[in-house]
Amino acid sequence: MEDKKDEHKCNICNKIFSSYKTLWTHNKNIHKNNNTISKLIVSNKYDNSQLKINKIYKCKYCNNEYNHKQSRWTHEKKCKIIFDENEQKEQKKQNTKIKLAEINKEIELAKINKEIKLAEINKEIELKKIEVKKENSLIKKEQKLHETTTIKKINKMLRQKINMKNSNNNNTINNIQNNNIVHNHFKIEPFGKENILNTITDKEKKLIINQGFGSIEKLIEITNAGKYDQFKNIIITNKRENTAHIFDDKSGTFISCDKNWALSKLVSNRLDDIEEIYNELDENNKLNNSTKKILSNFFIKFMDENKIYIDENANNKEHKNYSDFKVDNVNNLLFNYQDKIINDIGNAINNAINNAINNQDINNAINNQDINNQNINNQDINNQNINIIL
Question: Which string of DSSP letters, residue by residue, matches 174-197?
Answer without folding.
Answer: HHHHTT--------PPPTT----T
